[in-house]
TrEMBL record:
Gene name of the record: TSPAN13
UniProt keywords, alphabetically: Membrane, Transmembrane, Transmembrane helix
Name of the protein: Tetraspanin 13
Lineage of the species this protein comes from: Eukaryota, Metazoa, Chordata, Craniata, Vertebrata
GO biological process: regulation of calcium ion transmembrane transport
Domain of life according to the entry: Eukaryota
Annotated Gene Ontology cellular component terms: plasma membrane
GO molecular function: calcium channel regulator activity
């Protein structure tokens, strides 16, 4: 049987949603691991990661049920949601890849000023204090504060990795964007195929 058949479309769609399920569980596991080992104390960051993981899991669950049962309504909503996710994710991925060093610095500074708990995590893990300037009266959890050596600023340290992280995130985002548009195409084709084992009059 060629891959354009009903069974092949169904199997490909199920495999794609199993991949999304694994990725969603991985995201939730990473967030739990970061909290458990004390690497991340920001509830906002962990909450966002877990929320994305749960959202992706629910999408994959809808896609799996729709593919297994050949449910027209579920497949339609799955296709629409996946298309919207593709548009947002593709735009964000392109933005991550297009940022220059100055824009990266501005973005990091905005994030630094608006997330106190994440800022404390960065200072503790990277052993630095302050972003571009450091006031000794400010709270800093880095171990260098207790030593006689002056603490390094965090901006240069973060800047070394910011470009690589953004390119990595943008690349991963682009990869999954193409899997999402593939999922939209598979769903559209699968919805319009008749199950050879079903009653033809029950197709609609």
């Amino acid at each position: 049987m060629v891959c354009g058949g009903f069974a092949c479309s169904k199997n490909c769609l199920c495999a794609l949603n199993l991949l999304y399920t694994l990725v969603s569980l991985l995201l939730i596991g990473i967030a739990a691991w970061g909290i458990g080992f004390g690497l991340i104390s920001s509830l906002r960051v962990v909450g966002v990661v877990i929320a994305v993981g749960i959202f992706l899991f629910l999408i994959a669950l809808v896609g799996l049920i729709g593919a297994v049962k050949h449910h027209q309504v579920l497949l339609f909503f799955y296709m629409i949601i996946l298309l919207l996710v593709f548009v947002v994710q593709f735009s964000v991925s392109c933005a991550c890849l297009a940022l220059n060093e100055e824009q990266q610095g501005q973005l990091l500074e905005v994030g630094w000023n608006n997330t106190a708990s994440a800022r404390n995590d960065i200072q503790r893990n990277l052993n630095c204090c302050g972003f571009r300037t450091y006031n000794p009266n400010d709270t800093c959890l880095a171990s260098c504060v207790k030593s006689s050596h002056p603490c390094s600023l965090c901006a240069p340290i973060i800047g070394k990795y910011a470009g690589e992280v953004l390119r990595f995130v943008g690349g991963i985002g682009l990869f999954f964007s193409f899997t999402e548009i593939l999922g939209v195409w598979l769903t559209y084709r699968y919805r319009n195929q008749k199950d050879p084992r079903a009653n033809p009059s029950a197709f609609l």
